[in-house]
C-alpha cells in the first residue's frame, strides 16, 4: 500500500488541531502537544521503518535460502533517514513531555523549557548525524567530520558576532545553550546541504526539514521560559509539523534522484563568518568593552573548530601529496616502461614534448623532435594523409584516431608505425593532441610473411587456390584458366612413398614455371591438380595447354628410377563466367570430361558439357538411399515364341522415379551406380523384386520365365550363387523360371572369372543369357566357352547398316546356326517392324522381343497383354 498520502493528511490533521487550540476550542498547550506529537510520530515511523526493515533481513542481497534477492532500497539512504526519524521523534517527545510537566496544562514555565532544551540537544545531534549519513552528503568519514567542523565554525562565529553586537542581553545558561545549539545545528545543516557531492536536491530538502524542526523546537524552548501562553507558540509548533514532511520528502529522493550536485567544495564558507567574528571582536575591543564568559566560550569554540579544520586540511594535503607522488611514480614507470612513444602536439602540429622512451624505441632525442613539425618525421608518401587526419581531428571532436605511417627514426631508417591520436586540448593540464606512436615493423613483416604463406603452396612454391582465385578475378572478363591433372600420380605415391611423390610434384611445378609465359600465373590446387591463369586468346591458350601437356608427360628421373606420368587439361574461357569461382568450376568440368576422354586429352568447357556433368552429379548425389526411399521400379517387356506366336517370358527392366528428373532408364544411372559402389545393393533389390513377381505369376498359373540383368559388380562378387539361391528360396520360385542376363561389358576382361560365376549360378538350375550380343568385342568363337543358355542379339545384326546396301540376313543366320550347334537359343532383340520379324524368322530365330510386340510396361499392363495373347 502506498504511503504517499499519509504525510499530507497528517500535516493537515495536525494543522486542524493547532487551529482548534488557537480558536479556543481546545487547550492551546494540549493542542500543540497533540499536533506536534501526531506529526512527529507518523513521520518518524515513515523515516525509521525502511532502516528497520533492512536490519530484519537475513543478509544484504540474499533471500532466506541464500539466493539473490532484489532490494528496493539501499542501506545508505535508509541509514540516514533512520537517524532523521529518530531526531524527529526526539523533538516530538520533548514537546509532549514539556506540555506534560507544566502544572495544569494551561501555561508554560521554566520546567518545560528545560525539557525542550534537552530535546533540542538530542534532536540536533540526531539531525546532524542523519544529514551526514545521507547518500552524497560526504564521500567518507573524514569528509563528514570536516562538514561538522565547518558548520560548527560558521554557526559559532555567527553567534559570536551576534552576541557581541547585541549588548544588554541576559546571560542565562538556558538561552545561551539554546542559541548555541540552534546556531550550530542550523549551520551544519546548511553546510551539509550546500556541499553535498551528489543528490543535492535530496540533501537540501532534508536539511530544510531539519532546520524547520530545530527552529520550531528552539522557539518553543524560548517561549516556555516565560509564564502564560506566548502567541508565537502555534507558529513554532507549525514549523515542527511541516519540518518532518520536508525531511521525509528529501529522504525519499536520497539515492534515487538525479545526480544533480556540482562542485562547491572550493567555496570559502568559513571566510565570511570568521571574518565577521574577527571584525566584531576588534570593534568590541576598540570600544573598550570586555568579553563576558559566553563570548569567551564562543570564541574558544571558534578557535578550536578552526584549528581542527586546519589540522584536517594539513592531513588532507599531505595525503594528497603522497597520492600525487605515488601516481607520478606510477606514471613515470608506465611511460618509461611502455613500448609506445608519447608525443604532445600543439595546434600547429608541432611537437612540444615526447616521452623518454623515444630514445630507446626509435633512437629519437628531444633535439631531433621537440619544437619540430610532427609531419617532418613522416615518410613523404604518407605525409599528406597524416596531415589531413590531424587537421580533421583539430577541426572538430572525434573519437581517438589510428594513423598508420612510416616514421624516420634517429638512425635515418623508415619504421612502420601505428599512432593513436587523442584530442586532449579541452583538458587544462594537457591542452594538446596526444599521439602514441608504436613501432609495428616486426608485426608488419610477420603479416607480409603470413600473407605470402597464405597465398603460396608450401610444397611447390606455386600460387595456391586463394591467390589463383584473386588473379582470375582480376583477369575477368578476358583470358582463360587451365586445370591440369597428373594421371598415374596416385600409383607413384602408393608404390614409391610420399617423399618420391613430393619430389615428382616439385618437378612438375618447375616444369609449369618454365612452360608458362611471364604474365601467366601457375598454381597448385591440391594433390596432383595444377592450374594456370593466362591472358592469352583461345589459340594461344590451346598452344599453352599442348606445350604443358608435353612437358608434364616427359619422364621424371628419380634416384630410384624413372616415373612416367601423363596429364589431361580442362580449359574454360573467362568470358561469360560469373566470377573466379565459376570460372574454376567450369575448368574442372572440362577436366572431368578430359579424364573420361583418356590420357593426354584437352577439353574446352561448353554449356552442354556442364548440363551433362551436372546431371551426372545429381545422379551421384541422389543414388545413395534410392532403395530405402522406394524410388525404384521394374517394368517388363514380353518375349514371344516366334514359331508359335505366344508369350513365353519377359525381360525385367529397371527404372528410377527421380523426384526432379522424372523416370530414368537403367542405361543412364546404372553405370553411375557401378562407379560409386551401389550396383550390388540395387542389383540385389532387382533380383528380389523379380522373384516376387515370378511368384505372383506362378500363383496366377502363368508359366513365364523372367530375364533379370546382372551388373558387373554382382558378377564379380564371389557370393553371387548364394544370393540368387537365397532369393529363389525366399520367394519359392523354381530356378528354371529365372534367367540371369549379362552384357558383354559386364563380362569385363576376366572371362575366366565370369565363366566361374555363371557356372555357379547354372548349377542352381538358373538359366543364363548374354544380351546385346553384337555391340561389343566378343567373337563368335567365345560363345562356345561361355556357360549361357540364351543369347540376345542386337538389332544391328539383322538390320541393314547405314550406307550399305544388301540384307543383313547372312550375319543373323550365322549366329543362329552357331547357337543351334552349341545348344544356345537365340533371342532377336529390337524388333520394330514386320520386315525385321520376317528376317529373323527366316534365319531360324526361336524367340523375339521388341516394340513390335510391346513396350516395357508395369506388371499389370503386361498381365493384360498376356490375357489378349494366350
Q: How would you summarize what this structure contains?
A:
The chain is α/β, with parallel strands linked by helices and 870 residues long. It contains 30 helices and 21 strands.
What does this structure look like?
With 870 residues, this protein is of the alpha/beta class. It is 55% helix and 14% strand. It has an eight-stranded mixed β-barrel with strand order 13-14-16-17-18-19-20-21, surrounded by four helices. A hairpin with a 3-residue loop joins strand 14 (647-658) and strand 15 (662-665). Helix 3 runs parallel beside helix 7 (200-223) and helix 6 (173-194) runs antiparallel to helix 7.
Structure characteristics:
single chain, 870 residues, alpha/beta, eight-stranded mixed beta barrel, five-stranded antiparallel beta sheet, 21 strands, 14% strand
Neighbour order of strands in the largest sheet:
13-14-16-17-18-19-20-21
Largest sheet: 8 strands, mixed, barrel
Q: C-alpha Rg, in Å?
A: 55 Å
Average predicted confidence as pLDDT: 81
Q: Helical content, roughly?
A: 40-55%
Number of strand elements? 21
Q: Based on helices, strands and strand pairing, what is the structural class?
A: alpha/beta
Spans of at least 5 consecutive residues whose pLDDT stays below 50 are 58-73, 802-806
| Morphology | elongated
Annotation field: number of helices: 30
Beta fraction: 5-15%
Gap from first CA to last CA: 100 Å
